[in-house]
Write a structure and sequence with these properties.
Layout (H helix, E strand, L loop, with lengths): L2 E2 L2 E3 L4 E2 L2 E8 L8 H17 L3 E7 L3 E7 L6 H19 L14 E10 L4 H9 L6
Antiparallel strand pairs: 1-2, 2-3, 4-6, 4-7, 5-6
Helix pairs in contact: 1-2
Pfam families: Y1_Tnp
Protein name: IS200/IS605 family transposase
GO biological process, one term: DNA transposition
């Protein structure tokens, strides 16, 4: 896939799809230190690469993380989220035994919910106006 100023090409499409993801820890417990977040960023970059996606930005705090991911249209956001949360939870538990006390019920680090928002492109109002102004066939 080529990257030309944020626009990527696949076999049958041209796309620029970004999603803003936010994951929170189970019960919003204060879990992460800088060392955890640094390792988590690398883990999440690797997971994204497996999906032919790119982690553009990553940041977090003691009880949540934010990701900006550029992903191809063939990738379902829910599937990507499931992998990001599952792999990061498993690997962090393996690599940082001190986190074990923060894992609750069925060894879950993350809350079952998440935020996902589409990002980029023109504002909705501009797109709506553009579509409204298209000529309809006679």
């Amino acid at each position: 896939m080529a990257d030309l100023e944020g626009i990527r090409t696949g076999r049958h499409c041209v796309f620029a799809m970004h999603v803003h993801l936010v994951f929170v820890t189970k019960f919003r417990h204060q879990v992460f230190a800088t060392r955890h977040l640094s390792r988590m960023e690398q883990i999440m970059r690797d997971v994204c690469a497996d999906f032919e996606a790119e982690l553009i930005e990553f940041n977090g705090d003691i009880n949540h993380v934010h990701l900006l991911v550029n992903h191809p249209p063939k990738v379902a956001v829910a599937r990507l989220v499931n992998s990001l949360k599952g792999v990061s939870s498993r690997r962090l538990r393996q690599e940082f035994p001190d986190l074990a006390r923060h894992y609750y019920r069925a060894n879950k680090l993350w809350s079952g919910s998440y935020f996902a928002g589409s990002v980029g492109g023109a504002p909705i109002s501009v797109l709506r106006q553009y579509i409204e102004q298209q000529n309809r066939p006679a």
